[in-house]
Amino acid sequence: MDTITLHKVNRLEGIIIPPPDKSISHRAIFFSSIANGKSYIHNFLNAADPISTINAFKELGVNIKEEKSIKDRNFLIVEGTGLFSLKKPNKVIDCGNSGTTIRLLTGLLSACPFHSVLTGDESLRGRPMSRVIKPLRRMHASIEDNEYPPVKIWGGGLSPIYYDMPIASAQVKTAIILAAMLTEGTTVIRQPIMSRDHTEQMLKAYGADISVEGLNISVTGATELHAVDITVPGDFSSAAFFICASQIIKGSEIRIINVGLNPTRTGLLNVLTKMGANIEKINENTKSGEQIGSLNCGCPDALKAVTIKEDQIPFLIDEFPIIAVLATQAEGTTTITGASELRVKESDRITAMATELTKMGADVEQLPDGMIIRGKTNLKGARVSSHNDHRIAMALSIAALVAEGDTLIEGKSAVDISFPEFYPTLERLIK
Predict the structure, then answer these.
(1) For the chain, percent helix, then strand, then coil, each to nearest 5?
(2) Are strands 363-367 and 332-336 parallel, antiparallel or unpaired?
(3) CATH numbers and ranges of domains, the chain
(4) Amino acid 214: pLDDT
(5) Alpha helices per DSSP H over 169-317
(6) DSSP secondary structure of 80-99
(7) Which residues pair with 351 in a beta bridge?
């Protein structure tokens, strides 16, 4: 059965290297595939979602080879086709469970002069696409009017636009940027607030004509990209589960090394600081255009509740499930608002976390765009569900480590989406 039973532990101790960053791994395949020449990608995330992106580009005629060695287990060579030489796929492109794959491909393929169809698994076919399709249609993209996948695209003939984004979304802005890169003229995108900027940072390294001024992103199309040699840093969103575990399990000491510390990804650290966490950054430097470093994490005497508002959400969108667990162990009432985007992730993460933490005895109240969590709570073991969402599975696993009694988690294999080694890593840290 696809279940795992966990129970309360005494402490966590050890050193971990988090898996490669999922967002950067996706983008490395996208940008390398449309660059000229061979790009070398080191420390690629060999997990289900990025593999969906690899398979998609193979369908589009890109030669992607995996090379393995003792020194670099996840090393890819991508032979880019250039901006305008992707091939018409021979079949429907299956994006699996990957929202990043389908949304970014929708942008890219809307500018390619052929017909294509994108679909995914049952979960992905329930995720909305209109937020991507609407701005692309303003660029004169021909995309069938479906709220949900499959997405049918008749590509080519786009025009540049000025687009004022109604919500902050790294996926949406990247989809528009990809379409703009294959379009003559300059497209300007204005963000309501800053979101993850991996796309902007990485494209500069590939030679794109892209500039950022405040909240405005300008992209001038038809500028060829050149191949790069890139090393993917450790995924902060995956490390977040162990960072938070170290803060609620007494006596824990964990060092996380070579993790990405891009400021648009590490909003969790700001939240933890306000809660009174014990975390120290060390060995900070820059590699392949991304900030990386290590974190020393130890359990503080106590945590206090915080208020998280809409302007903070883009910087910790993937960390919401583990923040909810953290809040159950903090003194006072934690309030999270402005997070309606969480209802259309791999699962409805607001409902999922409220439902499952309530089973474990937490005092949780759902809001339309967030939740209220009253702590501190003595959690109890229960039978809970991952809702086939990797981040829900991992968050509930951490909750189980502080709960009295056994917790049985259904759908544990969801972790394979982003962190296949999550459970072996967790087992190694338990003392």
Answers:
(1) 35, 30, 35
(2) unpaired
(3) 3-19+233-429 (3.65.10.10), 22-231 (3.65.10.10)
(4) 93
(5) 170-181, 198-205, 236-248, 267-275
(6) EE-TT-PPPPSS-EE-TT-H
(7) none
How far is it, in rounded angstroms, from Cα 261 to Cα 264? 8
Q: Which residue carries 């984004």 as its tokens?
A: 165
- Residue from 429, 389, 424 nearest 409 by CA: 389
Rg (CA), the chain: 21
Is residue 70 over pLDDT 60?
A: no
Catalytic residue among 49, 94, 318, 389: 318
- At 94-112, the pLDDT tens digits run 999 999 999 999 999 999 9
Residue 389 annotated as catalytic: no
362 burial level (CB within 10 Å; 0-12, 13-18, 19+): buried
What is d(CA 40, CA 78) in angstroms, rounded to the nearest whole number? 7
Residue 29's pLDDT is what?
A: 98
In terms of phi and psi (left: phi > 0; alpha: psi -120 to 50; beta: otherwise), the region of 207 is left
Q: What is the pLDDT of residue 174?
A: 98
Pairing state of beta strands 3-6 and 216-220? unpaired
Following DSSP, what letter does each residue of 375-417 receive, concatenated? E----B--EEE-TT-HHHHHHHHHHHTTSBS-EEEE-GGGGGG
384-394 pLDDT, tens digit each? 999 999 999 99
| Beta bridge mates, 279 | 297
DSSP 410-427: E-GGGGGGT-TTHHHHHH
Residue type at position 209: D
Q: What would the two tokens of residue 10 be?
A: 């005494």
Tell which residue, 330, 390, 394, 397, has the closest CA to residue 362.
330
